[in-house]
Amino acid sequence: MIANPKSKYGNPKAATRHFFLQRLSGVSNIVFTLFLVFIVVRLAGEGRADVVGLLGNPLVGIPFAILFAIVAFHMRIGMNEVIEDYVSEERTNRLTMALNAFFALAVGLVGVVSILKIVFWG
């Protein structure tokens, strides 16, 4: 039996939007991850004071916070795809999607606020 794509796979416009946003956030993650590698190499062997000093610089800390937010967003979209593929019951699907969104938002907010706290308050 062939599955009906409209009933089984959801809204095609949302799927296209998710596909595009996943690729866009993935490309931006590559750019920002190169920045992260630079920071890690720069801080290799340094103490906590040097790490806080470097992340306290707005030219380093703010892009690092942006990276954290984009990674959390990318994680949410990727996990949504996994949930849509492997969770078949509608009620469970909605619950896991909501929990996924909450988790990604919580991780993103904690990370970004922590980094911005270092940037603006040391």
CATH superfamily: Fumarate reductase/succinate dehydrogenase, transmembrane subunit
How far apart are the first and last residues' alpha carbons, in Å? 62 Å
The pLDDT mean sits at 86
Strand content: under 5%
Instruction: Compute the CA-based radius of gyration.
Output: 19 Å
CATH C-level class: Mainly Alpha
| H and E order | HHHHH
Q: Which overall shape is indicated by the principal axes computed on the Cα atoms?
A: elongated
Pfam families: Sdh_cyt
Organism: Devosia geojensis
Function: Membrane-anchoring subunit of succinate dehydrogenase (SDH).
Subunit structure: Part of an enzyme complex containing four subunits: a flavoprotein, an iron-sulfur protein, plus two membrane-anchoring proteins, SdhC and SdhD.
Give a quick summary of the entry.
The protein has a single domain, classed as Fumarate reductase/succinate dehydrogenase, transmembrane subunit (3 helical TM bundles of succinate and fumarate reductases), CATH 1.20.1300. The protein is about 85% helix and about 0% strand.
